[in-house]
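Tutorial handout. Part one gives the primary structure; part two gives the three-dimensional structure as tokens.
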Amino acid sequence: MTTIYDVSRLAGVSAKTVSRVLNEPDRVRPETRAQVQAAMKALDYTPNPSARQLRLGGASSLGLLLEDPVSGYLSRFHHALLTACMEAGKHISVELFDMQPGWAERLDRFLDEGRVRDLILLPPLCDFAPLKAHLRQREARAVLIAPSVFDPHFPSVVMDDRAAAREVIEHLFALGHRRIGHISGHPDHSAAILRRQGLFEAYDAAGLPRPEPDLLVAGDFQFRKGIEAAEALLSLPQPPTAIFAANDETAAAVSVAAHKRGLSIPGELSVIGFDDAPIAAAVWPALTTIAQPYLDMSRRVVQALDNWEANFSSGTAATYMTAHSLIVRDSAGKAPK
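Part two.
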């Protein structure tokens, strides 16, 4: 299926320019407009009529519910979604949301007053079954980002958390680490489970015994819990030479706990996080981490909403996988001898 991004690549312009050619052609220079129109013809691209009607109608076609706007993970997605919507010529309405009593009435007010039909649900809201049931009742459309469980009614955009975690551990193996501690995420979210499974897979593939139970400490993706978990690991009679944290906030907490003990990072302890949240580049030393493909996932969300029926071509909602990358910075080094 040809998308606005395919047209933009062939024409050598931004997706936002393609959107302007479709919706506000008089604002685009004639030579650029001709270039985009030639690309659309070559690719046999036809704009989605319902999506275009929403863009032209003055209503905000997309809605984003945020439960924890200060989370580094969610803030990165917020920025990426804003960028993807801007590129596609869409507006987006953002609503602070929680699952306290009265949530359904607040949601209805947001959808009705903002004339929002399409929603984007991030964790943990993407796993809140009553919310999704309410949306189905309203015949609202939604795309789920990184849900814990597959939902046949809503398409989802995900990355391979297990493969990413395995890549982290293999990177530490290459640096000579074998005694690796792990601080997991919230036990109710599948990402925490998948990242631990990836750790185990790396050990199994290398023919090494899995980490001892005292090297696996429960966390909840929060900084304070990360401090407690790091203290537990660093207080072991034989502490780990590296710690893989389930997210960057937890990894930053590990760095704080290590510095408090006078440990050198990465000389005496290597630390790796996950997400590439803003804090990963802000702490010292900067964190080696897994970069989630925030912008690619956000663009895939916009495409899924623009071509809604295509998400169900197999009879059930599609799941779209996106690629991660390992960002090597200064917090991981060779294992101490």
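Part three, for discussion. The first strand starts at residue 62 and ends at 66. The two ends are 54 Å apart (CA to CA).
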